[in-house]
Write a structure and sequence with these properties.
- By secondary structure, the protein is an alpha+beta fold.
- Helices cover 25% and strands 18% of the residues.
- α1 packs across α2.
- 28% of the residues are buried.
């Protein structure tokens, strides 16, 4: 029996438990492998709720089990697009906070990019850097399709 003050133990999520998040994480790990090849793939970790009636909380974590930020919104599993948006935000938060660097970086501007839906309704990495002459910010690549 554990005391109320004892934190619950995280567990690595098995493949197939959360299919939409698995798919989304596979895309994010492709971008991670291209942009930060020294890092091992990210993983999903689950933490039981303190309340037995509540579902477990799932986080995007580094290979060593560390994570940063909020858990994934359970309703984001409804579609691949919402799962990808949720996992991309969580992955970015974990990588940036634990590696102390912006991720991913726009190769053109050296600025951190953010996931954003583009006009074709596809989640893409968006860069705030302008394109000449005085052009607007730009979409760099779809999430999961970054190149070195």
């Amino acid at each position: 029996m554990c005391a109320l003050s004892d934190p619950p133990e995280p567990r690595r999520v098995s493949p197939g438990e959360y299919p939409a998040w698995d798919q989304a994480l596979a895309l994010l790990n492709r971008d991670l492998a291209v942009t930060l090849p020294q890092l091992e793939p990210l993983q999903l970790l689950a933490l039981p709720s303190y309340d037995a009636d509540e579902p477990e909380n799932v986080y995007v974590a580094m290979a060593n089990g560390e994570w940063q930020g909020n858990y994934l919104d359970p309703t984001s599993q409804d579609t691949l697009a919402s799962a990808l948006a949720s996992v991309a935000d969580a992955a970015q938060e974990t990588v940036m906070e634990l590696q102390w660097q912006a991720w991913p970086l726009c190769p053109e501007h050296g600025l951190g990019m953010h996931p954003r839906e583009n006009p074709e309704e596809q989640l893409s990495w968006w860069c705030a850097g302008p394109r000449p002459p005085r052009g607007p910010a730009h979409i760099h690549a779809p999430v999961g399709a970054l190149r070195s």
